[in-house]
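Task: complex structure prediction.
Instruction: return structure tokens for all chains below.
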Amino acid sequence: MQHFGQILVFASFLLTAGTVALALGGAARRRPDLVRAAGQATRAVAWLNAAISLVLVHAILSHDFSNRYVASYTDSGMPLMYLLTAFWGGEKGALLFWVLTLSLLAGALARVRRDGSPYTGWVLGVTAATLLFFDVLMVFASSPFEGFLTTDGPPDGSGLNPLLMNPLMAVHPPFQLAGFIAYTIPFAFASASLLSGRNDAAWVRDSRPWYLLAWSLLTAGLAIGGLWAYLELGWGGFWGWDPVENAALLPWLSGTAALHTSSLDMRRATYRRWNLVLVFVTFLLTIFATFLTRSQLIQSLHSFSNSVLTPFFLYFMVVLVAFFGLLLAYRWRGLGASAARLSHVWSREGLVLVNTLVFVICLFIVLWGTLLPKISESSAVQAALGLEQAVDVGPEWFNMVVAPVGVIMVLLTAAGPLVPYRTGTPGATRTLARTAVAGLAAALVVAILFAISRGSLLAGLTGEGLPAAAWRAVKGLALPGFWGLLSIAGAGWIVAAVVTDWRRAAATRAAVTGERAVRAAASLLRANPRRFGGHLAHLGVALAFLGFAGGAAKIVRKDVVLDPMDRLSIGGTDLIFLGTDERYDAGGQYASLRSHVLAWPAGKALADGTVESLVAASGAASGKAGTAPEVELAFASAAAAAEFHATAFMQTAGQRDFVKVLVVPERREVQLAPFAIETLRFVPRSFHRQIEEMKGLAAATGGRLTVTASRGDPVITVRAADDAMFKALTRPSAGAAAWAGVRRVKDRPTEVAVVPAGMGMTLRPEMRFYAKSENPTTEVRIDSGLFTDLYVAATPGEGSQSMSLTAMVNPLMSGVWLGSLVLILVTLGLAVPVGTLRTAPAPARAPEGEPEEGVAP
Amino acid sequence: MSGTLDVLFAVLVAGALTAALYRLLRALGALGGPEDEVER
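Output:
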């Protein structure tokens, strides 16, 4: 099958080359027949690449390990979803994915643009030429259809990196890649506009739906990647300023700037040059991001090792810069002459310019921070900059530098839409001031609420008065808190601005059409999707910034080593580490070491009657509430307490961790085996941990139990010294046990503390150990709420049964995800309907330069 | 099971290749043709 795939790849390469020749030839010689033939050929290429992809998918699904790619990234035990993920999971498949997506987009483009004009010819030509570059890579450097020279391949494949075995990771790469790829089309339109010598904004209008689609996909890629990092990587954040994350952010920054300049270009014929440059830079940065991922320049979680493609991407970037640079230089004057001048800085145009500059500055900051550590390795650079060694730029640096820029962005987002085109009016300034006050008020309310809630927490811990504690809590936030507060003010301002503008426009419309206000507001969105869709998108921005602001107030307790029944207090919640157990997942081929962590609101008392019912269930003499949710049971004697301890232990930890294999009453002996025997192969010190657990119980009973472990079979033998203890050890639990955890009370031998079952909420963070990977993964658990997330991750600690817990309280985290979702859906919604109208003649629009309907009163 | 998979993909690949061939023929047909005949 490899030969068949290879032949198709080569055919696709030839056909694409032919398409390039037809399209460029047709455009240059103004031959509609050639351009139309190029359109048909583009669609042929799309089908051909679809066939190639199907061949690879078949090889993956049918476990054809004679294919080197299939053998490297899949194995026969993988579930279907991750098998499909393998299509783009390795470099060669990702390359085919790139080729497939670009040719499908090009095919769709050819389908809607059939006018045979030279302009269309240039668009198709540039798109096909870009496709040809990736075809060259696939044919000559990195084909997914390589076989093995001497053998038919291994009996089973190597499988996928377990970090990627996550549903989010299944969808992050295709979104991210498709976002990169889709930027090719606006670039092709921009090039075509320059090549055909047009100085108008037609290319902006034509490429707008593609542009929005690309932006939406890229945003989705970044957001899904962030969500995956938050859930999977175990450090509690969603953005680590990893070089490859930054590389993916770069085109997003220039792309977002271009999104705004292009609106202005369409509406007011301004920023024509800016717009071309930004669209080109965005496309160039998508290639740069791909280059950075594959190069050995940076060490990153994302990097593909041993890529042969690096130099190709470098050459391609050089060619692109030369091509577009020359083209732009050639047309520069004409473009300037055709564009309208900025009449007043205090206008929509002026603010968009500021916005663009802020995005460009942010882009340079991120680029600088990403490349500086690498550049500063060179001794010449070190000498020039007066450095002693290579610079290490960490997340703290990025957060510190990017935060103020972000705040400016969010403030501009609020102000921009309220300022009319051409020049600001006093009325607009008044509206701005009024809405800004609303934003500040929102920030103030949040600040007060924060001070009270965090202050009362602090006061509870330290015993100081609420005002002092509240002030200390606010001061503790320092600079990030200041930026966070400004972000909240900005977000509030955005909401106030959007509501004001929308309400005003709806009232005007309702007065004219007689519609009800709500209906009028809805029809505005249909009538002017760019303006009101933009408003909706800005609400998404507001939500996201609330999430970013929440990051400033997050509470982190890192790497706290806990033994069973120890507690950790964080942000008003007590976390009680109940213990661990181990399970084996045959489908996923991994063993997991799970920690059971009970979350209990600090200070909350147990329900009435809990103590009494526990006393009755345990046979204790009396009981009293301990630190909730613990109950301290007092027994008649130390011996009775020890017996109860053994029973309770066997009914909680014992049941989680062991299977009773043999009970020998005549020797007062119980033989225990690990609950899931497979875990011994994967989890380090698994059996040792279990032996220690039973030895701990033996010690707690005052030596009335002896524990021996067999060397051959993984069996732990527990022998009781007397009949009472043996009875306690083997007492069956009636249904569900009444307790979740048990411990001895220090210095009080007649007492035992228990945590009743069914209290609070148990989070079970895991460490997963895979059969086919040396690196375990952390599976964090998050109790996610609208206002705050409680986040718990656990890794094995130093002691025999201890675990190292990382817990966080992340306020307003949901804003990041909800805001991203709004942004993605809104831009997608704006892209799609316009896209379907593309074949129709351009809708009648106000001629360029006409003022938009007044926003200010 | 694997037989069904093979047949399914054989049909899909053949379909895609047929569509590609059709578009290729249309491309060749468009060459040199008068403008109006194309896409009508």
